[in-house]
Amino acid sequence: MLLEVAHPDFEPARRALAAFAELERSPEHVHTYRISPVSLWNAAAAGFDATAIVRTLVALSRYEVPDGVLADVRDLCARYGRVRLIDGEPGRLRLIGEPALLAELARPPTVAPLLVDRPNPHEATVAQIARGPLKQALVELGWPAEDLAPYQDGAALDVRLDPDLQMRGYQADAACAFDAAGAGVIVLPCGSGKTIVGLAAIASQRMETLIVTSNSASLSQWRAELLAKTTLDPESVGEYSGQRKQIRPVTLVTYQMLTHRTGRDQPFAHLELFDQREWGLVIYDEVHILPAPVFRATSRIQARRRLGLTATLVREDGAEPLVFSLIGPKRYDTAWRELEASGWIAQAECVEVRVPVAAELRMRYALADGRERFQAASTNPAKNPIVRSILDRHRGAQALVIGQYLTQLEQLAEELRVPLICGHTRRCDREALYDAFRAGNLPVLCVSKVANFALDLPSASVAIEVSGTFGSRQEEAQRLGRLLRPKTPDNRAWFYTLVSHETCEQDYARNRQRFLAGQGYRYTLTTAAELS
Predict the structure, then answer these.
(1) What is the SS3 assignment for 207?
(2) Using one digit for the tens of pLDDT, what is the confidence trace for 419-437?
(3) Which CATH entry fits the domain spanning 346-531: 3.20.20.70, 3.30.450.20, 3.40.190.100, 3.40.50.300?
(4) For residues 179 and 173, what is the distance between their CA atoms, to the nearest angstrom?
């Protein structure tokens, strides 16, 4: 569906479409929405029925809506809740539905082993531990179950938000949307304060909480936010990491820790953390990167309240339906540019700089294959003086130089005489450098992909991307997100991408930009000569 921004009814139309369609692209003049099975099931889970959706489509459409589209909307909406999971005997759930439909769904090999028995044609008995795998299998078959089984109350937690904390309107709306459901995903742009929504969920549920996040820097930031903006004391917040194995009423752990094992055929020892306490709430930060082993662990805690936080549900493997089935429906989202217009995130200008390739490198690139060719283009030495030129252009602004390849970053850090943070940097050194940057004592930092997620450097207003992970849209969004914290005095930021001209890197960069273009960001294309 295409929505014209200049139409006088744009605002009400946008609000109406957001209930049942995903905003895929929002450039200046025309926004693109997509209706999918998952978007319709999200709408059904939020209480929207097919009749209301069809009425909206017919009312808003400039042309007659094809009957096939309306029929598909009715059919897909009607599928949500035709089978329902409800409470049963201790250790059991009941899957109930129409006899013929249950008989059909009980046959596939992904479902049959999960059903304990069929006491009557209207229901099947399911073990509690099969709750997640069954929901996942039913989504894959196109029949999402409405999960009405109650959540188990975790151990009580005495916690409240700091009375001085002023939540923004959209943060409060997101927290209320989750609170009403008990499970689901909140989608908010980088820099908009998703962590505050998580804190509000903890304070509302008042149960012991496990927080799973992306890296050690995020652990530190969550801990700082918990102690600064809630009534929790330091002894109530634990960190389960390589350095510490603290299991406390609120425990922080990374995805990497949960999926660590000593060998490919060895078990994931730390997944037992999910069973260590009576967690009443599990928060998945950056839920779009939730790895497959943690998805499986999620299946074991389906009886717990679950909150997913993310800036984008885009996954390069197309596994978004897994988030829907195992975490829950999307409960709230808002457009990036809408928050930018309100001043809640910075106004970002995106620039792609086409960098020339010297004759010697051009020949090496021509003779290389696959990854070697991409690396040769990405690490083009001609990028280095351009980095210096951009930093000179924004003299006085705090900047991040971001890349994929350590050798390239080490050379840049040496030439610029600035520190480099990568996976090998000790945590204490990393935190000291981040603190110096936040305090304004360090104008430039070189960072590897460790800075892609959950890095809070609000003073950064310039980012220079010298290399990336092939065509990852997710990575591009996260890297831009490092700049989106509100700025003073003009609330502006600049995101530069350096791309070797007429190479495969240019093609991959185009794919990375697609996501940001879909959020309404326009890339200015320039050359190294024009920039200087």
Answers:
(1) strand
(2) 999 988 888 898 899 889 9
(3) 3.40.50.300
(4) 10
